[in-house]
Automatic annotation (TrEMBL):
Belongs to the aldehyde dehydrogenase family. Pathway: Amino-acid degradation; 4-aminobutanoate degradation. It comes from Drosophila mojavensis (Fruit fly). Homotetramer. GO terms for molecular function: succinate-semialdehyde dehydrogenase (NAD+) activity. SUPFAM superfamilies: ALDH-like (SSF53720). PROSITE patterns: ALDEHYDE_DEHYDR_GLU. It catalyses: succinate semialdehyde + NAD(+) + H2O = succinate + NADH + 2 H(+). GO terms for cellular component: mitochondrion. InterPro entries: Ald_DH/histidinol_DH (IPR016161), Ald_DH_C (IPR016163), Ald_DH_CS_GLU (IPR029510), Ald_DH_N (IPR016162), Aldehyde_DH_dom (IPR015590), Aldehyde_DH_Superfamily (IPR050740), Succ_semiAld_DH (IPR010102). Pfam families: Aldedh. One of its GO terms (biological process) is gamma-aminobutyric acid catabolic process. This is Succinate-semialdehyde dehydrogenase.
């Protein structure tokens, strides 16, 4: 069965104290909550409290909005050229790179993410800062040939103003840089509300932004457990011109509704329920590699994780046997051990959800061939990597996003059935399939109702690619040249009565 690591094998982590900030950042000042209240940040692998951060109030969040507005209108920010902003982002990128190890250690301590994955996330997240440093200089307008004489039609892109960024715990760095990089490149200022589970990574990168010379008030970080009232303030405040949210579909819908009155710009990156299809024409070894990468990245707590595996009859037994061997070999433990591959789930709520879903499948006569239980001997929040076969379509692991290390497998007969089942969900973030048949590749890629498709590939995220979903998985795209769109307004200037002769 699974290999567990003893604490003796835990590699020594260097102290990460230098970058750990335990105050919020408003208008360039590192401050406490006006209520003086704080909340604990815990290591999900051990339950140990690793820090206390300010539990900022709605009034504190209002101050952060005011600071962002003032900074947006100040000469220190508005007068900068695109090249100046690009250079600041490049400096920030350089500092994140320099402090990659410390940031990864903070991330592992507060999120439980295995250290090698945390280092990978620093590289991935920082790539958005670099990408948007480059894009900052390419926010082009247009001059369109006019239909009238003596007229010019000029189109320019201008920053929207203050943007509020609400981020989740599963990618504590990348979900901030993917938004803030684009916003700053466009010339906006931001108020970041990181997840209450992972505020320390957010504060650490904000500290580096300060060291990079990004002016006060341009990036504000509000740590809080009062997500709902502060989210409502962001939606209702006329000074916040855009909201970018990554998180659950449930909260995304609430924010979308609350932004309606102010006709605010909204970017929503929400949950998925990704199909992963293995056709008879697939290279099964490649498919198993892709399945492991897609499913077990961050212990399955990834919005683009494969959620439902559809495997065609001809390769079913081979795929399941090979996948089972790989799953049983996964190393589980405290993410600070350098060879751990599976850490804990983030919190008790997530643990209860995952274990409840597997119990539901068991009760509905699905077949649990590996795992299917908690690993309390390792820690309270550890759940065994699990494979469930013969999953009925009524099971929660089929209809819902599991967000945990659970593979649900369903056998299918033909392509039409696979595509119909893959699309049988209101979510549409990512989808994956394995096939060596070129005709099938194009057919299926076009028919999947998702924003992103991995063909013979389990890891698809990249700074230059547009990230986002369709259906209830969200609106807007992050990363790529499209990632700037949510932070700019298009302005048309009609130059009339021009005299050319
Ligand atoms: N599409 C993507 O890019 C993407 C990326 C990461 C996570 N996710 C999704 O996020 C979910 C898991 O993350 P989570 O549990 O942190 O989600 P969540 O929606 O509970 O929380 C996300 C953020 O929203 C805040 N929040 C919670 N309630 C709020 C409210 N009423 N108003 C304003 N803010 C509020 C939280 O404090 C946190 O900062 C999964 O469904 C996952 O698929 C999507
Ligand atoms: O969890 C969602 C984000 C993951 C990614 O950017 O690949």
């Amino acid at each position: 069965m699974f290999r567990r690591l003893s604490s003796l094998k835990v590699s020594r982590m260097r102290g990460f104290s230098a970058l750990v900030q335990t105050k919020a950042l408003v208008n360039g000042n590192w401050i406490d909550s006006s209520s003086r209240q704080t909340f604990e940040v815990k290591n999900p692998a051990t339950g140990e409290v690793i820090g206390n951060v300010p539990d900022m109030t709605v009034e504190d969040a209002q101050q952060a909005i005011d600071a962002a507005k003032q900074a947006y209108e100040s000469k220190e920010w508005r007068a900068l050229t695109a090249k100046d902003r690009s250079n600041m982002l490049k400096k920030w990128h350089g500092l994140i790179e320099k402090h990659a190890q410390e940031i990864a250690e903070i991330m592992t301590a507060e999120s439980g993410k295995p250290i090698n994955e945390a280092k990978g996330e620093v590289v991935y997240g920082n790539a958005f800062v670099e990408w948007f440093a480059e894009e900052a200089r390419r926010i082009y307008g247009e001059i369109v040939p006019s239909g009238q004489p003596n007229r010019e039609v000029i189109v320019m892109k201008q920053p929207i103003g203050v943007a509020a960024l609400i981020t989740p715990w599963n990618f504590p760095l990348a979900m901030i840089t993917r938004k803030a990089g684009a916003a700053l490149a466009a010339g906006c200022t931001v108020v970041v509300k990181p997840s209450e589970d992972t505020p320390l990574t957010a504060l650490a990168v904000a500290k580096l932004a300060e060291q990079a010379g990004i002016p006060k008030g341009v990036i504000n970080v509000v740590t809080t457990k009062k997500a709902a009232p502060i989210g409502e303030l962001f939606c209702k405040s006329p000074d916040v011109r855009g909201i970018s949210f990554t998180g659950s579909t449930q909260v995304g819908k609430l924010l979308f509704r609350n932004c309606a009155d102010g006709i605010k710009r909204v970017c929503l990156e929400l949950g998925g329920n990704a199909p992963f299809i293995v056709f008879d024409s697939a290279n099964v070894d490649k498919a198993v590699d892709g399945a492991m990468a897609s499913k077990f990245r961050n212990c399955g707590q990834t919005c683009v994780s494969a959620n439902r595996f559809f495997v065609q009859e001809g390769v079913y037994d081979k795929f399941v046997t090979k996948l089972k061997e790989r799953v049983e070999a996964l190393k589980i433990g405290d993410g600070k051990c350098s060879d751990v591959q599976i850490g804990p789930l983030i919190n008790k709520m997530q643990y209860d959800k995952v274990s409840g879903f597997v119990e539901d499948a068991r009760n509905k006569k699905a077949n649990i061939i590996v795992g299917g239980k908690g690993l309390q001997e390792v820690g309270d929040l550890f759940y065994a990597p699990t494979i469930v076969t013969d999953v009925p379509t009524s099971a929660h692991i089929y209809t819902e996003e599991v967000f945990g290390p659970v593979v649900s497998i369903i056998k299918f007969k033909d392509e039409a059935e696979a595509v119909q089942k893959a699309n049988d969900t209101q979510r549409g973030l990512a989808g994956y399939f394995y096939s060596e048949n070129l005709q099938q590749v194009f057919r299926v890629a076009k028919r999947l109702e998702v924003g992103m498709v991995g063909v013979n590939e389990g890891i698809i995220s990249a700074p230059e690619a547009p990230f986002g979903g369709v259906k209830e998985s969200g609106v807007g795209r992050e990363g790529s040249s499209h990632g700037i769109d949510d932070y700019v307004d298009i302005k048309y200037i009609c130059m009339g009565n021009l005299k050319y002769d």
